[in-house]
User: Fold this.
Amino acid sequence: MSSNGTDLPIGYLSSSVAILLYGSNFVPLKKYDTGDGMFLQWVLCAAIWLVALVVNLVLHCPKFWPFAMLGGCIWATGNIAVVPIIKTIGLGLGILIWGSFNALTGWASSRFGWFGMDAEEVSRPLLNYTGAGLSVVSAFIFLFIKSEVPSSTCSMDTTPLIAEQAINTAQDPCPGNSWVDKVPAVYRRILGCSLAVISGILYGSTFVPIIYIKDHSKRNDSIYAGASQYDLDYVFAHFSGIFLTSTIYFLAYCMIMKNSPKLYPEAVLPGLLSGVLWAVATCCWFVANHSLSAVVSFPIITAGPGFIAALWGVFVFKEIQGLQNYLLTMLAFCTILTGALCTAFSKI
Assistant:
């Protein structure tokens, strides 16, 4: 850890901002119909890339490493499931679950040196393993929290009693609904929790290419020899990977929909705002990685947003209700917070 006295305050301040924004970045979208999320994904990623462009210009265009784009590709793949997750199990529970698996995947890959990275050594291994174990426990607790997410239903009150050409027609009674809205209620929770787990694992792998480049920059025989050790220098490549991947997915979606994609104009401005909030949060995370080291910043930043999102879910959107669910939410949060602190202090 750096001996520079200004690094710690900057690192913890950046972590705090990242936690607040990550836990709130989907709030602007809650009252708008976003369909299956494919159009929203592209709008959000366009905003993310614009923020990266500004950051890149401020940093005087550091060297672009194409391999860093892979992390953005991984993130964009996991992010496709965000709208279905929020629609099936709610914002608060969704972030709590994918945050837990995000923390666990990020910890394991850096701790054991997966994917060609250098293994992170810690001074207190037992404390480190305890923290990882608590993250797993918290993930199982989240699965028992029931969220109240209203299903999208179509009212038939506005349907004329007698309509022309009504004979021998088989129209969808809910033409505006996405496939997520049509999932039977009994399967919605299973679908949402499963997607949240997959997204969390992908999110936890998003920094792997950047850490790989930084680790191999210290080796003279590597193609990455001499690469920057400042994490923010890789933001433009990382975010470019996000925008490129989301564009490819959106084009594939348009082809699958036979050039009739479901677009939601009212979600454009909220989607752009959501993308900007996420991009700023991620830039803060990059700064925290540099100031605190990833083994400290990762568990802290992945633990905090779930609590912020849970507060939104409890006090604003009323997704989590009932004394039992409140107690389970607090227990889960305390568990993952304890795990994050154990993981962080194991390095000190």
About this structure: The CA atoms of residues 47 and 272 lie 5 Å apart. The chain has one domain: 7-148+180-345. The two ends are 9 Å apart (CA to CA). Confidence is low (pLDDT under 50) at residues 153-173.
